[in-house]
Amino acid sequence: MSKVEVIPSAKRLIESLRDTGYEFSQAVADVVDNSIEAKAKFVKVDVQFAGDDSIVRIIDNGRGMRPDQLIEAMRYGANRTYESADLGKFGLGLKTASMSQCQRLSVCSRWNPDRANVVGYSWDLNHISKTNRWEILALDRDAVKAVTQDVLQKGPGTVVAWEQLDRILGYQHPHGERAIKRLRQMCRDTEDHLSMVFHRFLAGERGCRKVKMTLNDNDVTPWDPFCQAHPKTEVLKPTKIPINYEGIEGEVLIEPYLLPNQKDFETPEQHNAAGGPARWNNQQGLYIYRANRIIQSGGWSGLVQIDEHTKLARIAMSFLPALDDAFKVNVAKMRVQLPGEIRDELKALVSNVRGLAKKKYDNKLSPTIIVGKGASTVSKLSATLVGQGTPDTTTRPPTEHLAGTKVGLRLTMAEWSERLIAVTRPEEECTVRAVIDRARSANMYGNNGDTE
Q: Phi, psi at residue 67, to the nearest 5°?
C-alpha cells in the first residue's frame, strides 16, 4: 500500500491555534512553566508600552538551550521526554500561549556559562501568511541584541519576546490612554495570577525550588489560598485517594482548610487580600495542583454549588502529571475534569468540609486546639470527621420579631461592601467600588461602621 504524507497548512493551523482560549495572564504563566523547568531562580516579566512597537519579554536565568535544543523547542509538538514532575505536557505551550497574544514570537537563549553565544529564532505570522511554510526565522546579531537587550551577557538563560501585540492591546494601531489603561490592568491581573498559580514556587514550599519573580520590576509575592499563617485558619485531616486509570496507578492528595471569618482579620485590607483575585465567594472550593502548580483555583467542579455560607472552605487537591489523562488536562493546562472513579468519595469529603465551613461561618464550631508549630489550628470536631460522616449541626435560632418587624442582621460597612462586591458584575465593579469609597468617606454608618 502506497503512502502519502499530508502536511497541515501552516497558515491555517497556526491561525487556528491562536484561539486556544488563553488570557494574557494564563499565556504568561504557560511560558513561566518553561523557566521553572529550566531550573531558573529568577524570572522577570517586562511589559513595555510603545504603541505599535509595544513588547512583552519573559526573561529567566535558567540553564538555557543549545541551538539544536532551541530549534526543537520552537517546533509545534516539540519532541522531548518529560520528567514526572515537569510542568510541560504536549510540547505546544510556548508556541500556542505566545502566538495567542502576538504575531511575532522570538526566543533567544544562551546555554554556555563560559561564552556569551546567544542564538535566536522567530515565528512570524506575516512570513507564514506569505509562504504557508513551517519556517522559523534565524535572528542575526542585531536582532538578538534588540530582543535580549544584552541581559544574557552575564550568564545562561532565555528571553521570550512577544511583538505585534494584536490580541493584547485590541487595537489595530494601539495609541492613547485607553490602550495604556488596558495594558496596565492586564499587568495587575497577571501579577495576581502569577502570585496564585506559582505560590508554592515563590515561597519555596513542598520541596519546590524557590523562584523569584518580578513584573515590571515589582516583586511577585506568593498568595497562599489557605491563609496558613493566620492563627484562625484550621487545617483538617488530609486524605489520599488511590486511582487507577488505564493501567496507570497514582494517588490524589486532598487537604482541606477552613479559613478565618471576616471578624478574625485585623483590617479590611487583609480580609480582601485573603479573598483572592475572584473574591471570597468565587474562590471557595477546589484548588487543583499539578506538580505543585495551580491549574484550577476555586469552584466545586460540578460536585456542588457555590454558597455564601461555605465560602470559608478551600481544599487543595494535588496530583502528578502521570495522571494527566485521568484528569483530562487540556493543552493550555487551564482546565481539568474530575475522574469518575473518585467523584463519589470526593463529593462525600467536600460535603463534610462544607458542613464544617458553614458552622464556622455561623460561629458554631467548638473551640480550636493548636496542632504543630505555626498558626494553623484544627477544630475538635473536624480533627476526626473528614471522610467519616457529616457532623451534627446545631439548629439555627429563629429570627426574632419585634412589633411585627423583622430584626435584620447587624453588619459592618466592610461586610456590606464584601457582599456588594460578591454580586457585582466585572463591568460594574469600578462604579460600585467608587460608591463604597464615597460612603466610607461620608461616614454614612457612624463611627463604628455598623448598619442594619
A: -55, -45
* Other Cβ atoms within 10 Å of 357 Cβ, number: 26
Whichever domain contains 341, its CATH number is: 3.30.230
Q: Taking 60 as the threshold, does the pLDDT of residue 452 lie above it?
A: no
Q: DSSP letter string over 369-421?
A: EE-SSSS-EEETTHHHHTTS-PPP-PPPPPPPEETTEE-PPPEEHHHHHHHHH
Tell me which of 38-42, 89-93, 245-249, 401-405 is least confident.
401-405
Q: For residue 235, give the C-alpha cell.
A: 487545617
Helix (H, G, I), strand (E, B) or coil at 344: helix
Kindly report the pTM of this predicted structure. 0.77
**Are residues 250 and 203 located together in one domain of the fold?**
no
134 and 73 in one domain? Answer: yes
- Per-residue pLDDT tens over the stretch 421-432: 666 765 566 677
pLDDT band at 386 (very low <50, low <70, confident <90, very high): very low
By C-alpha distance, which of 411, 409, 432, 431 is closest to 420? 432
Residue 116 belongs to a domain: yes
Q: Residue 432 belongs to what domain range?
A: 401-451
- The number of domains in the chain is 3
Asked whether residue 378 falls in the same domain as residue 317, the answer is: yes
